[in-house]
Write a structure and sequence with these properties.
The chain is of the alpha/beta class and 488 residues long. It is built from 13 helices and 23 strands. Strand 17, helix 8 and strand 18 form a beta-alpha-beta unit. The two termini are 54 Å apart.
């Protein structure tokens, strides 16, 4: 064998295709320049992703033959879109073997309906089980809330509704007819809808009734309808993300395992079972502080009390102190709090800890959050007069005590600030079962202070370990820590 022979190319073509299929599509296409044998391997990738966001301005065909012509404005855009869609069609026409999944991302479908429908038809003929159609624009995220019928740029072709092998469907900015899901819905296990209109309260009910095997449902940035009613005995994961017009959410899902909600505080009516594993509540989208939100969130927490893992945002910590009745005790073993570690969150944190007696791991994601200081003052709630001694004044028998089973405390975004020290000292002082502190530094200062804390704990034979992760993701251990400490 020659010393510089490419051994990788000696592998069977089936293995090479497997290797190429593990790469992002942009990198997979680039392998075509390696050797003659690799030129068309990428076309055999079973998972077809045609994404204009990864598609560079073409320099072939028309562009090469007319290099002296300056393409501007709409002409340039037209040619680029033409080459993009032709690229997809050639890919699907090249091979005839089945493709497990087909994904198309294209922000201007209005003038290309025929080509897009041809792409979809070819994908279905190749027995795809996963279909993703995304016609949204990246800029939309920055302009929320958006609610306009023009956001639905493309109608799902009629022939798709009669396809009988689809297990996963994702429609983004793609109008659909919920009363036509009788056939396609029989095999669907996963449905994702984003930037689409939910026309009326019965839309989701009809959709779910047509999908007897559905396990995953995601509704993101949907609009129009104000009341969502979601009933399913098979649904395992439900995601509701920034649905702008939503006012009430009713869920009856006795098989639900994972629930994630991001948006405004609405009227919640939720029935789940002990199967619930994860509940993630993000109210970072809230733009106005309302006192009544406290009672609504407490009722929501009570409904989700079976969850083994609970994730909550800063707003929850701010409204809890305004409620006369605290949340019922939950069954969470893992608790994650997204917080600014502001004094106005302290009492809410202590209330939540007191409601989580079974917690074994607590994580604080320290970051920037809106603190409604003026609004809370309007309702008569002020920060502790001496915030740095707040946790010291809490004794184990008082509200906010450290759960007896707590083993791990983690701060993500550790900055080495007084409020962080004060909070940690409370866990160290009253954490009977505490075994580990994990400090993930947000900056160089936080990193250096965390290393000093680790070194101090080791020198004093603390009953717990301190793990430090730098802002670059490096874990400091042993002599490496000591060397860094000596430098600072």
């Amino acid at each position: 064998m020659a010393p510089f022979e490419n051994r990788l190319s000696l592998l069977p073509e089936t293995i090479l295709i497997t290797i190429v299929s593990l790469l992002p599509i942009k990198d997979a296409v680039r392998t075509s320049i390696l050797e003659k044998q690799w030129r068309y391997l990428w076309r055999s990738i079973p998972h077809v992703e045609i994404n204009e966001r990864l598609f560079a301005t073409p320099l072939t065909g028309f562009d090469q033959q007319h290099s002296n012509i300056k393409l501007k404005g709409q002409n340039h855009k037209f040619i680029r879109e033409f080459h993009f869609l032709e690229f997809g069609l050639k890919w699907l026409l090249h091979e005839k073997f089945p493709i497990p999944s087909f994904s198309l991302t294209f922000s201007n479908p209005q003038n290309w309906e025929d080509k897009i429908e041809k792409l979809i038809r070819l994908a279905l003929k190749r027995n795809t089980k996963s279909l993703e159609l995304d016609f949204s624009c990246l800029s939309w995220e920055e302009k929320l809330p958006l609610a306009d019928s023009t956001l639905e740029k493309f109608d799902l072709p009629n022939f798709v509704y009669y396809y009988t092998h689809l297990e996963s469907l994702k429609l983004v900015s793609c109008r659909f007819m919920d009363d036509k899901f009788t056939t396609i819905g029989r095999t669907l296990k996963s449905v994702t809808l984003a930037w689409v209109s939910i026309e009326d309260v019965s839309t989701l009910r009809r959709l779910l009734l047509s999908c007897p095997k559905i396990e995953y449902l995601s509704l993101s940035k949907c609009f129009d309808e104000t009341d969502y009613v979601i009933e399913s005995n098979t649904l395992e994961t439900l995601v509701i993300d920034k649905c702008v017009d939503l006012l009430s959410l009713t869920i009856v899902a006795t098989n639900l395992i994972n629930f994630k909600y991001c948006g405004e505080v609405v009227q919640f009516g939720i029935i789940v079972s002990d199967k619930l594993q994860t509940a993630d509540l993000d109210f970072g989208f809230v733009g106005m502080f309302v006192e009544e939100h406290g009672e609504q969130i407490v009722r929501l927490l009570d409904c989700l009390s079976p969850a083994r893992s609970l994730i909550v945002s800063s707003y929850v910590m701010q409204v809890l102190p305004l409620v006369d009745v605290n949340p019922a005790r939950n069954h969470a073993r893992n608790l994650t709090i997204k917080t600014a570690l502001h004094e106005l969150e302290f009492e809410g944190i202590s209330i939540l800890l007191d409601s989580s007696p079974l917690v074994e791991e607590v994580g604080f994601e320290h970051g920037e959050h809106i603190i409604f200081e003026e609004d809370m003052a309007y309702y008569g709630y002020y920060a502790p007069t001496s915030p740095l001694t707040y946790w010291d004044r809490l004794i184990p028998s008082a509200r906010g005590c450290v759960p007896n089973k707590l083993k791990v405390v983690e701060i993500i975004g550790f900055q080495g600030k007084p409020n962080e020290f004060n909070l940690l000292s409370n866990f160290v002082k009253y954490g009977r079962a505490l075994k580990k502190l994990v400090l993930r530094a947000a900056n160089k200062i936080g990193e250096e202070i965390a290393i000093c804390m680790k070194d101090f704990a080791e020198e004093n034979n603390a009953k717990f370990k301190v793990q430090v992760t730098s802002q670059d993701g490096v874990i400091y251990e042993g002599t490496q820590v000591k060397e860094v400490v000596q430098v600072i």
